[in-house]
Amino acid sequence: MSEERKSANFEAKKVVVQEITEKIKAAKSVVLVDYNKLTVAEVSELRNKCKQANCEYKVYKNTLVRKAFNDLGYKDFDADLNGPTAVTFGADETSAAKLMVAAAKDYDGKIVLKSAFVDNAYVDKAGAKTLANMPSREELVAKMLGSMQAPLANFAGVLNNLKAGIVRVLGAVAKTKA
Length: 178
Fold this sequence. Notes:
Blueprint: H1 3-26, E1 29-34, H2 40-52, E2 55-59, H3 62-71, E3 86-90, H4 95-106, E4 112-118, E5 121-123, H5 125-133, H6 137-177
């Protein structure tokens, strides 16, 4: 192979590694899965599901993904980057894991979770499954706001009843004086 061709190939790989690195930095979560037994139609369907969930499903060479993680200072993924590996980039902490766990069930085990990267930390297979069962950030915020709103609504009801009670007492006093 000529030196020029090697150099062009090396530069192309550097560009892909840079792309992967940027996607890892931009994503709130990254999930690695083994997709070996999926058909082309199933992969297309899964990509569409990912788009709808604001995630991105990509297949890269393991060596390039490993290099991207290593460049970011994460070596924990080296063991997981063997065999057919697909990468799902999530816009939030749980959506990619939820999607891949659901896909593993939907496609009868043709997808197998390997690991995840959430909050700048390595998450093993068991942790990724646990992550899939957690409510999303938006759901947690909504629950928290709902629980904060309930006491305020109750307090407003008490004040409203107090005001109504004062009006009734004043009305009764006015009747007795009249």
